[in-house]
Design a protein that fits this description.
There is one protein chain. With 316 residues, the protein is an alpha+beta fold. The chain has a single domain (8-313), classed as 2,3-Dihydroxybiphenyl 1,2-Dioxygenase, domain 1, CATH 3.10.180. Helix content is 16%, strand content 35%. The protein has 5 helices and 16 strands. It has helices at 18-28, 91-100, 163-173, 225-237, 296-302, and strands spanning 8-15, 32-39, 42-51, 60-65, 78-86, 106-110, 113-119, 125-130, 152-159, 177-182, 185-189, 197-201, 214-222, 246-247, 251-257, 263-271. Pfam families: Glyoxalase. Residues 7-131, 152-269 form the VOC domain. Keywords: Dioxygenase, Oxidoreductase. It comes from Halobacillus naozhouensis.
Length: 316
């Protein structure tokens, strides 16, 4: 069986205070909070989803926020850096915006591209790159208008204990194209125009430890439910051990640990985030899976209230 993923579906990270998380991603980065739900395995914890106007695959950054959570350590066996992509000729806008919010910015060049690198409030490593490919986001909030808004993912940097085994997985199992090697990085590209670039860092780092400021897993795209079942069979046939299919309400998911220690997921594009909210109301109400609705009152008592600040508050 020959398979090829379109690229990154979503990336999920562990962070600290949920309101700080919302303030940074919705206000500073200008992403849309498209879904406010809970961690299905720990319903006393939020699961927050941010993305473009619809939260389309290739744009979705998700978080498990725990106030007071122990800090993790970014290292081997994790996604080291999450890359966002913006329209061409807008890096100057983003550098100025980040500095306005007192976010320190570093610059790096890889494969002929310039990246703005920075950390979120809980230590997560992020970067922004400008590219022509990929549709502009239509979400406008505050001073981040569509011409400058984050389109979605540019990709990710993987810190793996077995870089060439991870490379083999990406190329020969996931169907990504090897672009080449430059200095300490191998680059792979999928056929989509967002979430389509994955860099592998060849030099091993200190072993990562899960906690606030680290990525929990990276998810790749399956076209639909039938394609998803094919991926499950394909991954197992290649010597990995995928889980049973998990219904996550907004997509189905399977998980497996690759040989370099990184937790991979394959997630379906459908049904998406408008299955239980209208487009205009995305992210406004706490949404629970049906099997948790009877516990809503208790869950709402446990969760810390969060709000997306109004535009007028943006730089107050």
């Amino acid at each position: 069986m020959t398979k090829a993923t379109a690229g990154i579906h979503h990336i999920t990270a562990i962070v600290g205070d949920p309101q700080e998380n919302v303030d940074f991603y919705a206000v500073v980065l200008g992403l849309r909070l498209v879904k406010k739900t809970v961690n299905f395995d720990d319903p006393g914890t939020y699961h927050l989803y941010f993305g473009n106007e619809k939260g389309q695959p290739g744009t979705i950054m998700t978080f498990f926020p725990w106030a007071g959570a122990r800090n993790g350590r970014i290292g081997t066996g994790q996604v080291g850096t999450t890359t966002f992509v913006v329209p061409e000729n807008t890096l100057g806008f983003w550098e100025e915006r980040l500095l306005t919010f007192n976010v320190s910015v570093r610059k790096e060049t890889r494969f002929g591209e310039e990246f703005l690198q920075f950390n979120d409030p809980h230590g997560l490593h992020l970067e922004i790159v400008a590219r022509e490919e990929g549709p502009n986001s239509k979400w406008e909030d505050g001073s981040v208008t569509a011409g400058f808004a984050i389109k979605g993912f540019g990709g990710a940097i993987l810190n793996t204990a077995a870089p060439y085994k991870t490379a083999d997985l990406l190329e020969n199992v996931m169907g990504m194209e090897k672009v080449g090697q430059q200095d300490d990085y191998l680059r792979f590209r999928s056929y989509a125009d967002l979430g389509n670039v994955v860099d592998i860092q060849l030099t091993a780092s200190t072993r990562g430890e899960m906690g606030a400021g680290t990525v929990h897993h990276i998810a790749f795209r399956a076209e639909d439910f039938e394609d998803h079942k094919e991926w499950q069979s394909h991954i197992a046939h290649q010597g990995y051990f995928p889980t049973d299919v998990k219904d996550r309400d907004y997509f189905n998911a399977i998980y497996f640990r690759e040989h370099g220690g990184i937790l991979f997921e394959i997630a379906t594009d459908p049904p998406g985030f408008t299955r239980d909210e209208t487009f205009d109301a995305l992210g406004e109400e706490l949404k629970l899976p049906q099997w948790l609705e009877t516990h809503r009152t208790r869950i709402e008592e446990v969760l810390t209230p969060i709000t997306v600040r109004e535009r007028k508050e943006e730089q107050s």
